[in-house]
Amino acid sequence: MCWTPGQDHELLSASEDFDLFVIGLTPAFSERVLGTDTSGAHRGPGFLRLAPAQLADLTARCLFPALHGDMVAKERAVGDLWRQAHSFREVRALAHTLTRRSLRFVDEHPGISRAEIARRSHASPGEVTRHFHKDMGLPLSAYRTRVRLLRFIQLVDGGCTFLEAALTSGFGSYSQCHRVFQATLGCAPRVFFTSHLRRAIEDTFAPLAEFQR
Length: 213
Hints:
This protein has 11 helices and no strands. By secondary structure, the chain is mostly helical. The protein has 3 domains: about 25-90, no CATH class; about 95-135, Arc Repressor Mutant, subunit A; about 140-213, Homeodomain-like (Arc Repressor Mutant, subunit A, Orthogonal Bundle), CATH 1.10.10. The longest helix is centred in the middle third of the chain and has 20 residues, at about 70-90. The protein is globular, with a radius of gyration of 19 Å.
């Protein structure tokens, strides 16, 4: 997956064989590595399905050693990795127009329905869901749920009440938000924010100090 600069992301669920690698790149670094202006390229999430050999090679590159504080070597390793990942994206056609529109609509209005997305896109609901699942690797409904939950968490972190956060993030009521939160994260919102779970997520996704120099 690729996220735009400054976009928050949290892992909500994963299978036992899931591996996650997170590397942050500035637009300037990306442009320097790729040798071209990439400011408008690949905005929004992206999904790739790689061949086994490609996946093994990319995974091996993600496991590069700490290199003992050598920042030049680190940048070279990250640059090589980014060039390879970018080349994989280049050989794949851009997401379908309906998928790009769905991503934009959900980002602007997390509570938007599939029928409304289809109406605004002048397409059938079936077309919208089919192209979205093909391009993104997950159902549109699941993506909408994740966006709403992440928006809810961000709003509560920012000081909103649970009710305010639920309504603003696109849930019809707090009770609906509570049900979805419980089903997705395995606990009630109040437990999530008042226990070790919230801190565990922050610690897990905190950038390594050695990459903050």
